Automatic annotation (TrEMBL):
Gene3D superfamilies found in the cross-reference section: Tetratricopeptide repeat domain, Toxin ADP-ribosyltransferase, Chain A, domain 1
Cell membrane listed as a keyword: no
Residues in ADP ribosyltransferase domain copies: 222-386
Entry's Gene Ontology cellular component terms: extracellular region
Designated name of the protein: ADP ribosyltransferase domain-containing protein
Species of provenance: Rotaria magnacalcarata
TPR repeats: 418-451
PROSITE patterns: TPR, TR_MART
Database matches in InterPro entries: ADP-ribosyltransferase (IPR003540), TPR-like_helical_dom_sf (IPR011990), TPR_rpt (IPR019734)
Superkingdom, taxonomy of origin: Eukaryota
This protein's UniProt keywords: TPR repeat
Length: 505
């Protein structure tokens, strides 16, 4: 094997069980083949193409380690390429794993395998050329990205017709509170460099060129262009919101804020230019898991929240493509969301982005800002004979919607006490993310000269140290607070008493 070929294989192979450490996407690619290091130069070139599509390729030469890796990967979908010989052994072991969605048999002779694969529904075909696998994977990746927007369903109490606030899932509350905190922060110019430095430690090698380009070319008026670009940003954002990866969400805060503001500015301009408040319809096609589909049916009449930015199109045919593609995957229902929009009363900004999108297409794409909330209407089959393809009618909520107002008031109560970085720090404490909260409060401490603010921050940092089990450090922070309390400017019996009380830990 050539040195170049070996170098490529080395970059594909990562330590066992560590895929998620450098995976910002919603899937991983597993390749099992005893001949993984024996390919000729033509195949090596194709491997480069595979890396362009999926970023990281997790390669294995033995069944046991591959099966263990698959069983340990719980939060991402798994696409698998496997040789025919090993496939006959491993497919029965891993086929029922819900995370395994697509299996591609790659072999030298199709005739040896076309019969046995018929028993396994997740096998997409037997291939003697890897290029068709690349094409299939590229389509699967696009579908995976489309299906990755995190959702929450808010049921209505049948008797009172009120939202059951006690049943709000944590992902909805925490992501919306994070958003409210992040959108009030004044980010500095160094936020971009801090984000790209973070990306270089988290993302695979094939993303590095795009990270460099983002660092040198990004400005807030290009936020939509970057969001629609087929690069690391879109999957990274949706994954972080779906998995509640607080580190990533905070690092991307400036980008989320820029994207929201850009959509808001466009929304105002387009509404003013067109002078139209006529109701219109947009469509979105995607896959829903059986679990989420069941939740949605139970929430009929209630609300659905898309907990990230949301792409849609005025063309139903585009939504149909994604919905029909979804039902080729095991465990997914194909959904066409039919969304009724009244621009005069909408609660979330949205904009037509054809001229600003990376693709500059004629798809009539409408992009909504974060946490767009709709009321769930009719849920019906698209085709009488197909139990997996559905149309769901959604109506964008208005500020006059009683249940939407109840939800809004709840969120405002949770975020009214503090603003910006302070609100974010408190939220992180509520989440139990003490190390990340410590970073936020340390940053605030370094940036303020106000004695009252310093006193407050010392108390928060001391409380964090106590929760991390470092009482010695906590006492030192309380002592720093006492120096301020004892000063002529901040002397207060109440603050002194509070500090001495807290020092008792």
């Amino acid at each position: 094997m050539s040195a170049n070929a070996q170098a490529l294989v080395n970059t594909m192979t990562i330590p066992r069980f560590s895929a998620s450490l450098c995976n910002n996407q919603h899937f991983v690619l597993v390749w099992l083949d005893v001949r993984i290091t024996d390919y000729n130069q033509d195949s090596i070139n194709t491997l480069h193409e595979l890396k362009r599509i999926v970023g990281v390729i997790n390669t294995f030469v033995d069944i046991d380690s591959c099966a263990d890796f698959i069983k340990s990967t719980e939060n991402e979908k798994i696409f698998m390429i496997v040789s025919g010989a090993l496939g006959q052994t491993i497919v029965p072991l891993i086929h029922e794993k819900s995370q395994v969605t697509s299996i591609y048999i790659f072999c030298g002779d199709r005739s040896n395998h076309v019969d046995w694969v018929k028993a396994w529904s997740k096998i997409k075909g037997v291939f003697i050329n890897i290029l068709p696998i690349c094409d299939a994977l590229e389509q699967a990746v696009r579908q995976c990205d489309q299906d990755s927007v995190p959702l929450s369903f808010l049921q209505v109490d049948a008797e009172s017709s009120s939202i059951q606030l006690d049943q709000l899932d944590q992902s909805f509350m925490y992501t919306i509170l994070l958003k409210e905190s992040l959108f009030k922060i004044r980010f500095s110019k160094k936020s971009v460099k801090e984000f790209t430095a973070y990306c270089r430690t988290q993302l695979p090698e094939n993303d590095l060129d795009m990270i460099d380009k983002f660092e040198s070319k990004y400005n807030r008026l290009k936020a939509i262009w970057w969001y629609t670009n087929q690069c690391f940003l879109y999957p990274m954002l949706n994954r972080s919101l779906r998995m509640m990866e607080v580190d990533t969400i905070i690092k991307m805060g400036f980008f989320m804020q820029d994207l929201h503001r850009h959509i808001t500015e466009l929304h105002k301009k387009q509404l003013k230019d067109k002078h139209s408040t006529e109701l219109f319809i947009v469509y979105r096609g995607q896959g829903l898991s059986n679990v989420d589909f069941s939740k949605m049916k139970k929430a009929k009449g209630g609300l659905i929240s898309f907990n990230s930015f949301l792409s849609s199109s005025k063309k139903e045919s585009i939504a149909q493509i994604y919905a029909r593609r979804a039902i080729t995957e095991f465990g997914l229902m194909g959904i066409v969301f039919k969304m009724f929009i009244d621009p005069s009363i909408c609660s979330t900004p949205f904009a037509l982005i054809n001229d600003l999108s990376f693709y500059r297409s004629s798809e009539q794409e409408i992009l909504f800002s974060m946490h767009t909330i709709f009321r769930i209407g009719e849920i019906k089959k698209l085709e009488f004979h197909n139990d997996r393809l559905w149309e769901v009618e959604l109506t964008l909520t208005s500020e006059q919607d009683q249940q939407f107002n109840t939800l809004t008031q709840l969120i405002q109560r949770e975020t009214s006490e503090e603003n910006g970085w302070y609100a974010l720090g408190r939220l992180l404490l509520d989440l139990g993310k003490f190390e990340k909260a410590e970073e936020v409060y340390t940053r605030l401490l370094n940036e303020t000269s106000n004695s009252t603010e310093k006193n407050f921050i010392y108390h928060r940092l001391a409380w964090i140290k106590h929760n991390l089990g470092d009482d010695a450090a906590a006492i030192k922070l309380y002592e720093a607070s006492l120096k301020i309390d004892n000063s002529a400017f901040c002397s207060s019996g109440l603050t002194l008493a509070t500090t001495y009380h807290n020092m008792g830990l």
